[in-house]
Amino acid sequence: MQPDIDRILTALAAEFASGHVDDRLTAQVAALTDPAELVYRAAGEGLAGLLYRRFKKTGDLAVLGTRLARRLIQTYYHAVQNELRLRAELIDLAVRMAQNKVPAVVLQGMALPEDLYAQPGLRPLYDIDVWVLPENLEAFSKLLQACGYRPSRLYPQTLKKGNTVVDIHTHLLGADRIAARRHLLAVGQERLFGEAETFRVGGCLARRLNRYDKVFYLWLHALKHNVERLVWLLDIRLLLQRFDRGDWHRLIGRAALLGQTRGLAQLLYLLDQLWAVRFPDVARRFQGAHPLSGLEKWVLRQRKKRGGLPRWSTLVLYPAVMRRGRLQFVWETFFPRLEIMRQVFPDAVGGSAWRLYTRRVWQLAAAPLRKSV
To answer: How far apart are CA 183 and CA 195, in angstroms?
Structure first.
């Protein structure tokens, strides 16, 4: 990773969150020996739209050079096209869910407040994630297939129609794949499902997590993927900026209810590391009352130092949150059930359990030899 590019992208996100243009950012970009790496990294971090908007607004696109500026423009308008297509599909789905009375909760980027990012294309959207309780999986899957979506052979809960993909989740935190993840919550997921809020999708209403649960879900989702995309943290920062003092008290209370007090402390620590966010006094007192271990801090600091957390970060950060099931989580992470193993090794889908798990052992043994994040 290149520290100068990491600093530029972190500053770019901070500039967007604050709404104040920092003239030093243009000079830093102009000083890069390889601005192409900045454009590619921005796309990988989910910030290409923000990079385009910033330099288009200031009239400094030329600092990237003609070829790179053209590539960035293409990336931005592709993101606009994707977002408009996905939102049109979500409107259709919302209408059909209401007609068929199939309860579902929209997750991730498609469930963010539409005014969180000022215009389409600023935040990339790739698919539609929908959470249904297990008893409604069959009904929702049939609804999607009636709309023209077709399931994947290896991932039957991933359905596709043209360029649009819908991922169906039957557990908010992926306990349908790694069962021990259910211990990340101190209450049953049905409570969060029942306390989801409504939001308008076109002329119809759909449901998404309430504003407090959304913070915890986005954080745990980012951790599951080793916080590989800076935009995931920017989403959370933008949501927290809207919180007043009362909201912060309710967020901390919700953390205690969900068993996510430690998770909230981890999140605030990382946001502090990246952006030195000005949290209110209630948040600072919370942090003081819930210190992290030295290992947790070291792992989280790798996001700023190396552009991502280590591949094994969830083996440290998830168990720190869990009240029970820690050893089960570690074991299932290394050796998931046979159905998941066949997804890990799709070229050996018909292989015996013995062969698949032997192959998994060799994969894990070779992991330290590969370049880590």
So the answer is: 19
Q: What is the strand order of the sheet 164-169 is part of?
A: 150-151, 158-161, 164-169, 128-131, 105-107, 204-208, 197-201
| Count of positions (residues) in the chain | 373
Other beta carbons within 10 Å of 292:
19
pLDDT computed for residue 370 by the predictor: 58
Residue 232, both tokens: 């995931």
For residue 330, pLDDT over 90 is answered with no
Residue 3: count of CB within 10 angstroms of its CB:
11
CB atoms within 10 A of CB 89: 21
Residue with tokens 């297509």: 85
| C-alpha count within 13 angstroms, C-beta hemisphere, residue 243 | 24
Residues 6 or more apart whose Cβ sits within 8 Å of residue 277:
237, 240, 268, 271
| E strands in the chain | 105-107, 128-131, 150-151, 158-161, 164-169, 197-201, 204-208
User: How are beta strands 204-208 and 128-131 bridged, if at all?
Assistant: unpaired
Chain Cα centroid distance, residue 198: 21
Which range, 35-39, 108-112, 235-239, 309-313, is most confident? 235-239
Q: Are strands 164-169 and 128-131 parallel, antiparallel or unpaired?
A: parallel
Q: Contact 54/12 with Cβ under 8 angstroms?
A: yes
Contact 82/110 with Cβ under 8 angstroms? no
